[in-house]
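Hi support team,

I've been running sequence recovery on a batch of backbones for a student project. Most finish fine, but this one hangs at about 90% for roughly twenty minutes before it completes. I'm not sure whether the input is malformed or the queue is just slow. I've pasted the structure tokens below so you can try to reproduce it. Let me know if you need the job ID as well.

Thanks,
M.K.
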């Protein structure tokens, strides 16, 4: 019998968390570009299908599972705490790009 490893789910969640942060970095750049055209977005809401990654973005406390993630990847967490953006869960079947 093969024993399951608990490392893989955390690694997937961390990879998804880093992807969300990278996505928001691109959104921030786009917000600044649109500001030149007079369009101002106060709060950006985007949808994601990984609940663990969403929980990592909303939890300001650093746990043992996230202590090895580099500080630059916590970019999204800082902006959620400031109210610049919001991440909401959406089922994968309801995603338009699915």
């Amino acid at each position: 019998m093969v024993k399951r490893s608990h490392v893989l789910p955390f690694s997937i969640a961390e990879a998804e968390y880093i992807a969300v942060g990278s996505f928001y970095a691109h959104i921030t750049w786009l917000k600044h570009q649109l500001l030149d055209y007079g369009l101002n977005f106060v709060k950006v809401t985007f949808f994601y299908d990984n609940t663990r990654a969403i929980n990592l973005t909303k939890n300001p406390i650093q746990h043992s599972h996230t202590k090895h993630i580099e500080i630059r990847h916590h970019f999204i967490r800082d902006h959620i705490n400031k109210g610049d953006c919001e991440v909401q869960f959406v089922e994968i079947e309801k995603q338009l790009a699915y």
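--
Follow-up from support: It reproduced on our side and the slowdown came from queue contention, not your input. The beta strands are 44-48, 85-89. No action needed from you.
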